[in-house]
Amino acid sequence: MDDLMLNQFLLLSAILFSAGVYGVLAKRNAVIVLMSIELILNAVNINLVAFGAHNGTIAGSVFALFVIAVAAAEVGVGLAIVLLIYRNRKSVDLDEVAQMKG
Amino acid sequence: MDFIQDWGLTAMVFAPLAGVAIMMLFPKDADDTHKVLALLTSLVTAAIGIAVLADFDYDDTGSLQFLRDNEWINVINSRFILGIDGLSVPLIALTLLITPLVIAYSWNHFPEPHNPKAFLSLILVLHTGMLGTFVAQDLILFFVFFEVVLLPMYFMIGVWGGPERQYASIKFFLYTLFGSALMLLSFLALFFLTGGETFSMVELAERVQGMDIARTTQLIVFGGMFMGFAIKVPMFPFHTWLPDAHTQAPTQGSVILAAVLLKLGTYGFIRVALPILPEAAQSWAPWIGGLAVIGIIYGALGCLAQTDMKRLIAFSSVAHMGYTMLGISTLTDFGLNAAVFGMVAHGLITGMLFFIAGSVKERYHTLEIKRLGGLLVSAPRLGWILGFCTMASLGLPGLAGFWGEFPAILAAYQPAEGLPVELFRGYMVVAAIGTVLAAGYLLWLYQRTAFGTVKDEFVDDPNIHDVNGPEWIAWTPLLALILILGVYPNLLFKVSDGSIVNVASQIAAATGN
Amino acid sequence: MVAQNIFFYVIAAVMAFSAIRVVTVKNVVHAAMYLVLVLAGVAAQYVLLASEFLAATQVLVYIGAIVVLVLFGVMLTRAKLGEDVNLTNDYWYVGAFTGVILFVLLAVSLLDHFGDEPLDQANAETQIVGNTEQVSDAIFGTYVVPFEAVSVLLLAALVGAIVLARKD
Amino acid sequence: MFGAAEAAAGAVEPGFLLENAYVVPLVMAASFALTLAIGKRLGKHASWIGIVSIGFCFLFAVGVNVQWYGYVHDSEHAAESHSEDSEESHGEDTEDHAEDEDEAHAEDGDEAHAEEGALVLPAAEGIGPMVDGESASARGPPTVAAVAEEGEGGEDGHAEYTIEPVTKSVTWWTNGTVEFEVGMLLDGMAVMMLFVVTLISLLVHVFSTDYVAGDRRYTHYFAFLSLFSAAMLGFVMSQNTLQLITLWELVGVCSFALIGHWWEEKPNSDAALKAFLTNRVGDVGLLVGMIILFFAAGQTFDIIEINTLANSGDITHTALLVASLCLLAAVMSKSGQFILHTWLPDAMAGPTPVSALIHAATMVVAGVYMVARMYGVFWNGLVIGGSSVNALAVVGGLTVLGGAGLAFVQSDIKKVLAYSTVSQLGYMVMALGVGAWTAALFHLFTHAFFKAGLFLGSGSVAHAVHSFDMKKDMGGMKQFMPKTFWTFVICTAALIGIFPFAGFWSKDEILAGASQLGGDGSYTAFLVVGSIGALMTAAYMTRCIYLTFFGEFRGGHHGEVSHGTEDHPVEEDHLAADSGHGDDLEAAHDPHADDHGLPHESGPRILVPLYILAGLAIVAGFANVPNSGALSWWPEDFALVFEHLFEPRGGYFPSLTEAGPTGAVFAHPKFDIVIALSSTLLGLLGIGLAYAWYFKGLGPHGITRRNRLAGVGHRILVNKYYFDHLYTGIIAGGVKGPVARATNWFNKHILDGVVDGVGKGAVVGGRFVYETIDQKVVDGAVNGSGYAAEGGGQVFRIMQTGKVQQYGAILFAATVVLAGVFIVVI
């Protein structure tokens, strides 16, 4: 228990990641799905930084930064889409979004 | 011939893709241009192939020739390795032969919704996939080519197929994809088990021998490959996609499917599964043999119950591939040689039978056996050809089919060391009984379609004419080969023997200790 | 080091709990609040990992911008502010199954592979001071091209979001 | 392989024709190809290709026989000179003759022998120019006395020699280190069969030019006759068992094609299918048996080697026993033995000349020939020389009686002959089973002639009355067709075994074998069977002759009756119908078609073959007159020529002098006047009884209606012992019907159901599975068989929800599972 272990960060991120996956797959509210995606991205970020620290390189932090930027963009566009869907169908229930049904 | 030695295989494999690229430049409605282009492409491919095969050293069929080893995907140490030996040569030759014939046959037999550009492009893409599978010597490369054939076939069935085409194509696609996934898993497992340094088949085989991999692990890894290949073959009980796909596919699709695609599975067994994991193969062999003979009997019984000519022929594939798999499961040089011969023979014969079924369908607009009859009266030549192929298919000695069946049955009497002899002898008897059933369903088919008199509804039907030009062009080489290989089987045995003996001795060496 | 460890586990426990709550609560607004907790936790972890610049960015961008955005989204789509029993779809057990198995697999393979490898503290200590500086050097030196790409991406996202959300 | 004598025999030059006999089947194969290729253009001349080819082959075969004679002769002398004086040069035998025990050959030198043969035999046997060559070859070789006295007594003084078979082969295919060859193996029996097959084939070709003239598939008919001849000739010369199997099946196909020659009618194609399938059943045995022998003999198909190893005891008895039992199944199907005989009578649906050639004289004896060819295997495997009753003899015996019984109730003349063939084949198999090898082959030889004669004779009659029904359309034919009648009677006499016709000699030898061989007389039962068979043969043939040639003519109403009657081959309809087409072939044929009033004698192309066959039926028996017992006065030179010439000598045949592994010595029966007389008397008795019954109307007529037991017996016979019912109805019907349907159902519902079920399960788990089962039951109840396609489509439709999340769920779940397996494996 003396030193910080690499694994504790990785396992934490695994929990976040799994929770995020569950959310993406199981939630019918589009906004919550977006939040779940944030969870996943953050899990990845923790991994990146942890490995960066582990290897003593700065690249991990830099890429985490990029991920944050991309996440911001993603949320922006994602919410715009959600809004559009809501405007068209008065609902953000993904179960009703099934135009791809064959 | 340096170019041929170095780049011949690569050129052969990718020539059809180049053809597709050229075809893309022309508009969709230029039907004739596309036909000519496609035929030319396939002929050029065949020409390159012939140049390669002519340069092939037939005295040294046991070793890989025309080896091409380039960097490919460094991250996973997968390399672009091409090479052929006596095992690939017959199948490559078969592929090179079938594709131009199919295109020639297409000349005036386009299934709805027409669109030759797309149809012929798909055939050419298939061509690349099939050739690539037979020359790839790297597992990842092999896998890629193995999967490349899936998509064009899926579209051919799904777009140009019969009334149930969607069901059939999805079933075909998912079924084979499922097998492929497990197969890929096995490939990866092999890669990591051997230290993650190579995907080369030859090297992997050596590494596996040199390492001490737990038996259970080997069995599981072999199991993954087994699923992938067995579904493709297809073996009982993984065959249910086959009748549907065959029945719904357009004639050309059926022919390619029967003639070449099914061989990918059996080829995979001999090329990949057996040499790399001989010990596991030995443990699996009794089960494979058992499924094979069940397939023989089961396929035959299935045939007897069919009312549709094409579906009957499709089911007969299950039985015939059963002989091939029985040959493989014996792990002896006899059995493996028989398997190679069986693959080629089945390709020629069943390909022909599907051609005929297509032509019958075109004339009668039905394949319902009950409604046919008197083919020998209304189209005598077609009837005779059907008779000839029927005889070949039921394994008549003197025609190609026999040499796939008999040595396989023969080999089952004395399987490789370490396999349960009594069990395999039982298989032998069952397989021999299968020949009776084969004769039964094929002759029964022939009797009801060709003998007798023409049914009232088809008397004087102007649609029903005898064999025409494109059909002769497409069929004559196949018919001639069925006869020639049947009379002088050494043409093929001589080629395959070298590499087969290698495989068999590899297995014997690995399982001996 | 013990202190760091204690901090880590406390924060981690909060984060894990919150993360799971994000995807399980029946109220969308509550989910957003839990998400804030998680994101803050992540920022804290960055600090523990000696990346204070990243921690700051995390707080600013995520908590300051993204969560607010999400909350706007919640409001604009008129989600029920109370409990909404219908938040999960019919196949939630597939997702649950996937999530659990995924976690087990990850845990197994991580424990298997990294065992008790320490986070390389020696290196980290040298970087503790001046990490921000290094980050800026890296971004505007080695990674300048990706940085530009990201900025273009952000611009594109901006334009795109406006185009999408604009009422015609 | 053959010990000391090998070198000696090896020095003997086999002669050009012998060495190149392989061209014979090749010529016929070429004839087949040529006929198919250009036959249509030649019209009625298409037959010339076949006739010229088979004529050439016949002459070639005669030449081969002549050279074979010289070869046998040389082999003996070479062996003798070798054994007596190893310094002597082998090719010459001039000096050794003085020391021979054989006094008839005081003159020395080969030319003298040949000359004498050529001079003496035609005179002695009076066969006529057609068979000169054969006669010349069939002459007494020098050591006849020793061989004839050999018997079971095994007197000394017999010079041990071998006749090296003439072989020639090329590589057919290779497998690893094992090479397989294709080639020819000419020994006595092959040479003999060459002669028989080419002769009968030639006669049938000639006969057919008249018989099937105007048929719409004239070309195909002759093409297949050629192909058949090629296959059969190749078969008898097979060098290895693989080649044997190949050609065995090829003759089967030709038989299939020719039985189904008029395939427009369902009964004909049914008969063809039945023949082929029954033979396939037997082929299972053939394949398995030959495979066992292949491995038992150390991976070789070579017939000589297998036989040699079997004789020397190098193959275990168990392997030989199993192999010979398997091969027996093939014999039963090909040679029409009980219980696989049912196809042979049906095969009469083919044209009559085909019946004569294929289903009487040649192809059906392939089974017998195969046993003779692999005699080393059967002899040791079934312990024929020992005292046990073996399967071969039992099957043969059963067939003799079973076939003869059925011949009584047939009204179709060809079916009478077909069952008679079955019965006679039974004799041959029985003879092989009791160890009388030569008797069997000799019977094969004589039977080929007289049975072909009978069939062609029946064809001649049918050609006149356009029907095969003896009861409805024949009767009193003697007055219309005297020439046909007399040839028919001669052949019948040969079949019944009246002295001195051919059948007498061969049947007598079989009966003598049954009584004398097998150690302590354990085969005596088969003597009884054979004798009863002789009695029955005589009776049913008398009935047949009575119905056909005597009494009132019942025909002349052909048009009304022969359509659609069940047992009638409709072949004459074709001929009649085809004659109306007005092609130029009809000139000769038309009179038949028009003139239904009274039948008349057939033309020369039909009669000449009949004469030749009848002549052979008279004289062929003298080819193997025994000179033992009551006939010991018969000159040794002309005694047992057949045996001497055609019986193999060498390690690949059971040894005459040394006991093989089973402890038995191969022996020849001696002539027994009692058996000869009693079998003749039984034959006469049979004729007498039938005469009394049919001609005089004596005896309890109508007993089948009055007596229940007799009625049952009659019904069983009429229903052919219900074998057809068993095979067609129960076995084939069962497999084709319920079993196949069950398999199909299993495929559609269980396997496809599993596939679809898996598809569903992956998507939605339990609830959907429940729904589908629900749906499936409903669907299944509603439209049963169409379910697989429809229901399956439904399932995949459900999966195709269009919901991205669901797709993602599947994707992820699958990936995770895969990764899990992956991790667990690594």
How would you sum up this structure in a few lines?
The complex is a heterotetramer of chains A (102), B (513), C (168) and D (826). Chain A has 102 residues and is an all-alpha fold.
Characterise the protein shown here.
The complex is a heterotetramer of chains A (102), B (513), C (168) and D (826). With 513 residues, chain B is mainly alpha-helical. Chain B has one domain. Chain B contains 20 helices and two strands. In chain B, helix 4 (116-135) runs antiparallel to helix 6 and helix 4 runs parallel beside helix 11. The radius of gyration of chain B is 22 Å and the shape is globular. Chain C is mostly helical and 168 residues long. In chain C, helix 1 (2-22) packs antiparallel against helix 2 and helix 2 runs antiparallel to helix 3 (52-76). Chain C starts with a helix and ends with a helix. The model of chain C has no long low-confidence stretch (mean pLDDT 82). Chain D has two domains: 5-71 and 163-169 and 179-680, no CATH class; 723-825, no CATH class. Chain D has 37 helices and two strands. Chain D has helices at residues 5-10, 16-19, 23-42, 46-84, 110-125, 132-137, 144-150, 188-211, 218-236, 241-259, 266-296, 303-312, 317-334, 343-346, 352-361, 366-373, 375-381, 391-407, 413-434, 437-465, 470-473, 477-480, 482-496, 502-516, 524-549, 558-561, 571-579, 586-594, 604-619, 641-646, 673-695, 703-706, 708-718, 723-764, 766-783, 787-799, 804-825; strands at residues 166-175, 178-186. A two-stranded antiparallel ribbon of chain D has the order 1-2. The longest helix of chain D is centred in the C-terminal third of the chain and has 42 residues, at 723-764. Chain D starts with a helix and ends with a helix. Mean pLDDT of chain D is 72; it is low at 1-10, 85-159, 558-596 and 765-789. At the A-C interface, helix 1, helix 2 and helix 3 of A face helix 1, helix 2, helix 3, helix 4 and helix 5 of C.
Radius of gyration of chain B: 22 Å
- Largest sheet, strands/sense/barrel of chain A: none
Quick one: which chains have the greatest interface?
A: A-C, 75 and 97 residues
- Distance N terminus to C terminus of chain B? 43 Å
